[in-house]
Every structure is written in C-alpha cells, then in structure tokens.
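Now for one record.
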Amino acid sequence: MKLDPFAVEVIRHGLSAAAEEMSLVMTRSARSPLLREAGDLSSAITDAQGELVGQGRDIPVHLGAMAYTVRETLKVVPAASLNDGDVLIYNLGALGGNHLNDVKVVRPVFFEGEIVAFAVSLAHWPDIGGFWPGSYFAKAIDTFQEALRIPPILIATAAGVCDSIVQFLKVNVRDPEACEGDLLGQIACTRAGEKRIVELCKQHGKATFVATLSRLHDLSEAEMREAILQLPDGVYEGEDFMDDGGPGNAPARIHVRITIAGDEATFDLSGSCDRVSNFCNTTSFIARSAVAYSARIMSGRDMQQNGGALRPLTIITRPGSILDPGLTAPVAAGNHETSLRIVDAIFLAMKDVIPERLSSGGATTSGMLSFAEQRDDGTWKMLYEVHAGGEGARYNRAGCAATRVHLTNTSNTPAEVIEANYNIRVERQAIRWGSGGAGKYAGGDGVVRTYRILAPSMHLTSSVERMVIPPFGLHGGEPGATCRVSLMRGGEAIAIDGKSNLVLQQDDLVTIEMCGGGGFGAAA
C-alpha cells in the first residue's frame, strides 16, 4: 500500500501523544504516592499482533518489556476470544513481564469490528501480597513468597468492571483501597488510549492506520540496521558484578558477548552466573529490555523504539541463569538492579569502540528503601522510595549529580508528601559531596537522605546495589564511592545490608548515602 509519508509521521506522533496522555491520566487518577508523585508507571500501544508501536516518555525497563507483553499474552489468550470493551489484568513474568509488583492492564482496541491495536498500562503496585509488606522479600526461595500471581483474567467488559475480581485482589493485598484506586486508574488510562487510537482510525481510515503501523516497524528496522552497519565487525566482551548472590555469596557475574556482523548484532548473555539465592534474579524479557536500550545508545540515534528496531538483534539467555531463572524464581529486585548491570556490562564491552557514546558507571541501582506501616484497622500503607545517585562522566563533560540513569526514570517523593502521609520525618536531604570519581571529567555526586521513624514500629526493605562494587570509571577515570545504608538506634550505629528486611522502632534514624558516578579520563 502506498502511504503518504506525512500521514505516517502524523500517525506516529499521534501514537506517542496517546501514550503520553495515558500516563497523564494514570498519574492524575492514581491513589498511591508511588504512582502519582514518583511516576513508577508506563504506557504503551501495540499493533494487533502485540508489537510495540507507541510509547510515552516513561521508564525504559518497563517499555522494553512491554514490547513482549501483549505478544506473549496472545499465545495463551487468543485475540479471537476478546470482545470490544474487554480489559485484561495480569502480572506473570512468563508473559513478557518483570517482577510481580508491575501489574499490566491491557485493552484491545476495536475499529469496525476488528482489533487494530492494544492499549497497555503498567503500574508498580506498592504491595501485591506475599510474605513481607511491600512484596519484596530478600531471602525468598521462590516467587510464591513474593506476591500474588495473576494470570490473564478479564477485569472489565463492555458491561463494566468485574467486581468479583476486584474484591479478590483487594483481600490479597495489604492496602486494598489504594489497590482499587490504582487499578481503576489503569483501566481509565487504557480507555483514554483507546479513544485516541479510534480517532486516528477515523481520521485516516483503518487500512491506512494498520499499514502505517507495519511501516513504522520497517522504518525502525532499517535505521537500526544502518546504525549497526556503521559499527566495526567483531566480537566484544564485557562483564560486571552484582554485589553478592554468587557461589558462597560472592559477587554475581553478569557477562555479555557481543558479535557485530554486518547489519546484525548478537548479544549473548549466557555467560552470566547461575540463578542467585536472593531476589535479584530477573526474567529474560527484562534482559531483552536492557539490551534493547543499550543497542539504542550504541546506535547514537534518537530512533523510535518499536518492534521493528528489535529485528536485527539476537538476544541469548541461558535457562537456569540469573537472567533466565525459570518461572518460580524470586525476581522482585531484578527489575531495577540486575537489568542495570546488563547495561554496565554492555558499556564495558564497547568502551574502546564507541567511547564518545557511552558514560562511565553511574548509580545503576534503584537505591530503594520501602517503609510499611500498619494502620489501626489492620491494613498497611507503603512508602516505596528510590534515591538518586551520580551519573557517570562522559568524554566531554562531568556527570550530573542526584539523578537516575539508564533504564530508570522515576522521581523522588517530596519530603512534604512523605510527612503528610506517613509517620516519618525527613530530617536531611543533601548532595553527597565528593562521592563522584575523579578524572579529566569527574563523576556526579549522589544524594543523602535521612528518615526519622515516628510510628511505634515500621517494616523496612532495602534493595540497594553498588554497596560493594563501585560504579566504574572509564579511560583512566576513578570509580565513584559506593552506597551506604545505616541505622542509628539509641546512639548506636548499625549497618544495613543492601538486600534486607527488618523491623524498625520508634525514633530510629535511617540514612541512605547514594553512590557517585565514575570519572572519565585520567585526572590532570
């Protein structure tokens, strides 16, 4: 079908605008501070086959996995079984997913009686059941200890929201009212996406709309192939390490072997360590998400990330490894810790090939502290908070201070919001001066934040990497400082492990000091 290139661009931008609007609807209607303040959510649009075609400016690790979410789900829920008005909910990692807190709500979009697209909302629920409040259990032996597992089920139809499913979910989470509010926000979010997609179909015609989606894949494939073709053929290897979880609790290896051959690239991650004994395993789809992000950085282009851009990439994971641990492995922290180590390994592999496109090691950890406080009625309220560190320096500039890097794109929760909603006082928030690594260009500095516990007790979860192995410098630059988490109780300082669950007492003081970025080039 001959397509007007201007119409193709109008539809492409229309899809991006629709995804942006979906995220805005979600942010404004969500109940949890994690969603409405920190923005731990993403929106996407796929074609009728489940291939990603539109996304908002959300969280790269979410969006990379969403390239597979609908496609994998259609293998178990045939498109022919879906009707106009249906909305699915699920969180299983096997269906193009990630950790169980990331709940997907998917709506098929019908036009003239046929599915032309899917609107997808992903939101991190602050609690989704499991052993520990917040659904992060560092010592989990399997995923059943982590959270409630939801297969694809209809949460809504043309007749309305399925109340029985909502009630089932509410009795299995610790903050049922927030859960219901966030869920309804996700449903509304996909409805907004549906409305915009239908408008595009009416404006341009169904045949043109469907053909344009196919064309967008082809354009991105061609651009990715052209970018890979400009890289020198060869085999490049890189590795980095998680702080622990390997044999004897030694650092756990993440290894990549990149083969560039013409206009195709193979990323072999099978040399990474076996499944680890904590919650830092991750799904193969998150591994693919990290590779897709890294390939885009390697390309040096601001190309549209869709299904077509993945066609020139072959991504290999090894069953039984930390990056492909099986359907029952604990994976809560792998989403935001292990995925970032894949990016680090890829950057180290390519550091001598395209140094002008890469940065030194940054705060490739969420620096997550999750506080859970029980209400008088037995329900809980959760504060899931991530912390910014230093960006790695680049070949021509110093790294930024107090920022999130690579696959993450969430904000901190303002101190005023925390103090208004939780029995916590934020006593300090500052730059951790001098934490960036020295170099011709210095790495950025991390942040320091201190929390005073005002409730009689509170449950704490830490998920912090880069406490043992610092962010790396490149080409003579020095590494950044490592992260630290500490507890002051009754005048006694107690170190907190980066992966832990503990119960806090009233007047405890918890401090996190985030790592700095690595320097680039030798210092004068």
The chain has a mean pLDDT of 94. Residues 5-221 form one domain. The two ends are 60 Å apart (CA to CA). The first helix runs from residue 5 to 29.
